[in-house]
Amino acid sequence: MQNIIGACPHDCPDNCSMYYIVDGDRLVGVRGNQDHPYTRGRLCLKVKDFEKHHYNEDRLIYPMRRIGPKGSRQFERISWDDALSEIKDNWTRIIEEYGPQAILPFGYAGTLSLLNGMNAGDAFFNYLGASIGEKTFCASGSVTAQVLTIGPTLGTDPESFVHARFIVLWGANTISTTSHLWPFILEARKRGAKVVVVDPYRTRTVAQADWHIALRPGTDGVLAMGMINIMIEEGLIDHEYVQQHTLGYEELSERAKAFPPDAVEVITGVDANNIRQFAREYARNQPSVIRLGVAPERHPGGGQGMRVVDCLPALVGAWRHVGGGLLQMPIFVPVRWDFLSRPDWIKPGTRVINLLQIGNALQGMEQGPPIQSMLIWNTNPVSQLPDSNKIIKGLLRKDLFTVVSEHFITDSAAYADILLPASMAAEQTDIVTSWGHFYINYNQKAVDPPGEAVSNFELFRRLARAMELEDPYFHLTVEEMLTQVLDWDAPMLHGHTYEKLKKAGSIRVNVGLPDHYKPHANGNFPTPSGKCEFKSSLAEQGNFVALMLRQMCPTNQNGERLDPLPGLASPDLIETGAGPQTAEWPLQLLSPKSHGFINSEYANVSHKRRIQGEQFVLLNPADAEERGIQNGDHVRVFNQRGEFAAEARVTEDVQARLVVATFGYWRSLNGGSVNSTTPYCEKLGLGCSPGSFHNAVQINKV
Ligand SMILES: Nc1nc2c(c(=O)[nH]1)N[C@H]1C(S)=C(S)[C@@H](COP(=O)(O)OP(=O)(O)OC[C@H]3O[C@@H](n4cnc5c(=O)[nH]c(N)nc54)[C@H](O)[C@@H]3O)O[C@H]1N2
Ligand SMILES: Nc1nc2c(c(=O)[nH]1)N[C@H]1C(S)=C(S)[C@@H](COP(=O)(O)OP(=O)(O)OC[C@H]3O[C@@H](n4cnc5c(=O)[nH]c(N)nc54)[C@H](O)[C@@H]3O)O[C@H]1N2
Ligand SMILES: [Mo]
User: Fold this and answer.
1) Which domains does the chain have, with CATH numbers?
2) Ligand found nearest the CA of 295
3) Residue 290 CB less than 6 A away from ligand 1
């Protein structure tokens, strides 16, 4: 038996370090790496039996060609040579007729790593001259909010949370989605910390916390403004910190005057006394720390609201202390994007298409050629993106040539003309950077891929050869890429080398140790002014998204100038204190992450579904009674866009007029999915974030 160092590839902030256990040429198990200071040897229930994922009998292991109607899941096996020559013929024809921008790369982060992850196809498509697919599915709103306010900082070290005395999990269901942070929170609590969760419903995390602030969805910015109002009124501001290390306090405090607790209660639904108590405890119990999740940005104006939350730690001087401040997404490690993604190959004026808007884009483009072909990889848009019926309508277009690289024939892969088999984590070598902790992990190939599956890296090498793209870049080996893809000369990696990473399996970025790390005790925010910018200079300049997310999100698609001061929430929310509900569609549906799947992965695996349970919808007893629904009844959740089947769980855990159904279930296995009902992203939010939780539905017993 051999133990080979690996890293969990899933799109999750925890990015566990683990070992592949190999017997001969077979992966027989995995175990967590106990020496990893953050993930500490524990694996979640999704990955515990990772070998079964690799050897799942439904796995796609050969290239296939569609032989039935689109979406009918009828395919025949073909060779790689045939698949590549069919792709080449189609793409050559399309390029001759429409130009290369008629081809759209459609990739995301199904595997999270440098060579095989989100940016795996960038160089290839940039060289080809294809349209750019803007990928703002997840956290671009919250990350943009952070960058505008405190800059591209790593923020508070999750390991430093043990030193915090007041921990706020804000729109984050930590026990389900970032479970390796929880032991640090428990340790802090043992030392006297209080744990507060700001979430519209009672999650698993809320059930374990000390205090639940159950606000109305999408009202986070208003709640935070209310806290600022109280902190100013009651003399809880750290004026010395504010004066030395922030910009725009006068304007922010002027704006906060409009948010006295009673008015904030009406909008957020949180009792005014609770808001007062929350503001006082947050300000006085230092160090206080906020862990911000991604869900608030799924509401109109949500990203703007998160900017207000990003202001809070500086106002109370939380950054002065080890364990104080805010952790959002520590993604800012020195990757050499210029080397990896080759943005220098992008021709000026290349069209950018936001992938959340693919439904409309497939029906014809206002500018440039119609989309004639897509390569979908590392993502399952039909399950995962809003208004999936609209996406399917596009995928059914007879003249669209769709190539999908996948592990399984997912809801999206079902619409492919050509299917290509992708390898899994244990079958490829890579470096994985985390978006939840301060370590970079190494993942070594442990076994050969089954059949003819290839890594994303190899896929784009093969496509480059087929399309006759001549550049030395496309001949670099995995090892040559990995030695160069991180900027080893950057201060954050000082003293580290690729060799050291390989040997150690994991390295900590060079920012000081968790028991001492106080990134902004003396300001030093990586903003243009070096201060925490309540009034953002980047917002005044525009084009703010490009500064940080590079290829992931190259433009501010809306082209709107942003208010330099943090915004609040959508105007309707402010005016009425209400959500998207109407007389016809009286219930707001939130569709957050499940406990048992990772996005839509594992939702096709029966033993994982048994653990997670079949699709359910939580509804308040008052809403259930009105509809004659009892706990356990089968119901239909629907609106003008689509529907899905679910089991009703009647519970006080949700507020009246709010319902919750976790997402990830495949529509093909489940009579629709939550994203059959979520609204199309006609207008995107801050950082081009989706408004998919601003969703109103009706529920009937079936
Ligand atoms: N088990 C599991 N873990 C995962 C994933 C998974 O699918 N399953 N997915 C991974 C991915 S891609 C991501 S991005 C992370 C996300 O992890 P989280 O940030 O925790 O994301 P969500 O589950 O989307 O939302 C968190 C909570 O926000 C609440 N919420 C909804 N609307 C609002 C609002 O307006 N305000 C506030 N304050 N709260 C609101 C939801 O009810 C939910 O409980 O998880 C990762 N980890
Ligand atoms: N309603 C609702 N919708 C949401 C969200 C929500 O909270 N509510 N959250 C959003 C968020 S935060 C995110 S991040 C997105 C996630 O959306 P997606 O990125 O589409 O999520 P996954 O379901 O993980 O799909 C990844 C697919 O890539 C495949 N894959 C994995 N590794 C590889 C590989 O190495 N090569 C290839 N070719 N394929 C691979 C997997 O088999 C899987 O089918 O969903 C978003 N959608
Ligand atoms: Mo995500």
Assistant:
1) 64-138+345-429+445-471 (3.40.50.740), 156-327+527-557 (3.40.228.10), 579-701 (2.40.40.20)
2) 1
3) no
